[in-house]
Amino acid sequence: MDEASITFLGAAQRVTGSCSLVRLGGLRILVDCGMIQGGDDAEEQNREPLPIKPGELDAVVLTHGHLDHTGRLPKLVADGYAGPIFAHPVTVQLAEVVCRDSARLSQSWEGGALYDEAAVERTLKLMQPVTYGQPQELGGVRLTFHDAGHILGSCHAELAGGGKRLLMSGDVGARDTPIIRDPTTDWGDTPRFDAAVVESTYGNRLHKGRPETLAEFEEIVQAAVRQRAVVLIPAFAIGRTQELLFQLRNLEAEGRLPRVPVVLDSPMANRVTAIYRSNVADCYDQESRALLASGKRPLRPENLREVTSAEESKGLKKQAGPMIIVAGSGMCTGGRILHHLKDFLPRKSTTVMFVGWQGQGTLGRRLVDGVKSVRIHREQVEVQARIATLNGFSAHADRDALVAWARKVPGPVGRFLVNHGEPDSTQGLVVAFGQAGLERTSAAEMGQTYAF
Ligand SMILES: [Zn+2]
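# zinc ion complex -> structure
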């Protein structure tokens, strides 16, 4: 029997930069190749070559389209990888949007672009779509994708070969996320796994319930309507933006909100929303299918306007409220949200609504922490607006949900390896697994190899 092992080349004791090397059935398979984000040394780290020569890899498997899982792929290709990249068809589409955007953004990096458009083109040519539940032969190893319920097209990757079986959780979604299905818990007749790698972004925390979060959301929008004011939402382009559109339409349809003008002001989020709208068949949950079947359009609030041109975006400040402006980037580190913040932060009537996690050192985090003045585009801007933080729209399972998910993985699982979390979160989940009787669980360490 060949040696089976996994080596963590990223996202061990941290959240971003997902990248794992799997040796199985005589093959070397890279699972995810994501961008490292946050921290002063991120740029340098992203430039470092992987500790394995790209030409020695047999295949790459992507769990989903987020930047921290796909963003270094074109670099791998530029460095010489020319083999197949297996991904869900939606992930193929999202990776294209994400990698093109990141090629453009990295042009402003101190050391120059991480890769160019040509590398992105070459990467896209290597992509091979694999749908849920359809086994794909990699030449001695069989890959099967299962719905991870995190964003559209997100997967748990099952790899079987040489008599061993490994499950890579990818990012595990939160149950009851609208539009998409819940993470897989019904494994049918899938045999037991020798090892399972589990993410731990929220491994030591519990989320606020969605109903509670929606009530806060409703309250803020109602107040804005009464005052004819503007609500600014810095939103992440993939997943969160589409959930916001869904919730807004739903609240309108239920008569809980009046029809407020909603402006989607992000070229990237517009492209991703189009991908969400066009991939219903393999991905939507029953609720969204039922809406479509009854002629409703789940991602279109009544007064939705999708802004593409920069001119139109800049003109929004002259418009009378009420109005909801959804613009990227989600942590206010760039994008159109910056000029909106410059225009609207000094107005007392404005509410800036944060609906996602804000990284250390970002403008978003400073606003959430309550600073009274910020610097945007070399101008000092006074913060008069109300800053609201809604924590319940998470795309990740929390601690208890991760434990519940792991208990359903066909077992007894030989060993659990916990990755994709800050050290406290990872350790929190290791402890929670132990308490739940899921033995042989360890925290993944960067650069370490674990046999199974
Ligand atoms: Zn993700």
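# post-check
Residues 191 and 410 are 6 Å apart (CA to CA).
The chain has a mean pLDDT of 95.
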